[in-house]
Amino acid sequence: MIVRTTEEITGTDRDVAAAHWRSKRIILADDGVGFSFHETTIEPNTVSEFHYRHHVEAVWVVEGTGMLTDLETGQDYPLRPGSMYLLNGHERHRVTTDTTMRMLCVFNPPVTGQEVHDENGAYPAAVAN
What we know:
- The protein has 129 residues and is mainly β.
- Helices cover 3% and strands 44% of the residues.
- It contains one helix and ten strands; from the N terminus they run αββββββββββ.
- It has one helix spanning 6-9, and strands at 15-17, 21-27, 36-42, 47-51, 56-63, 66-70, 76-79, 84-87, 92-97, 101-108.
- A six-stranded antiparallel sheet has the order 1-2-3-10-5-8, with no helix packed on it. The chain has a four-stranded antiparallel sheet with strand order 4-9-6-7, with no helix packed on it.
- The longest helix is centred in the first third of the chain and has 4 residues, at 6-9.
- The model has no long low-confidence stretch (mean pLDDT 90).
């Protein structure tokens, strides 16, 4: 059994920040459960583009409002608490925030926790442990 709090993760190597977002990586690849689980916060009035070419990501919005844009189709989806989106086709996407957004995210395959987005907003392919 694994029990962790976001409080104990804060300020550790599981607490990763970039220009407009912060991700607390609660479950990672080295936990050996086949997925990773993150709490991600994106600052208000920002635009972030992502493309997870090697991962499927499910996102559950628990706080804040914004817009998800599928960059493959141009379709926009409003985001608010209770919204979920699944990037099961490795879609390039944009998240535009109106307010601070807090989301719970699951990645498969799991991330190691030290990935950084490349110039295309992607994480590298998973490395077997």
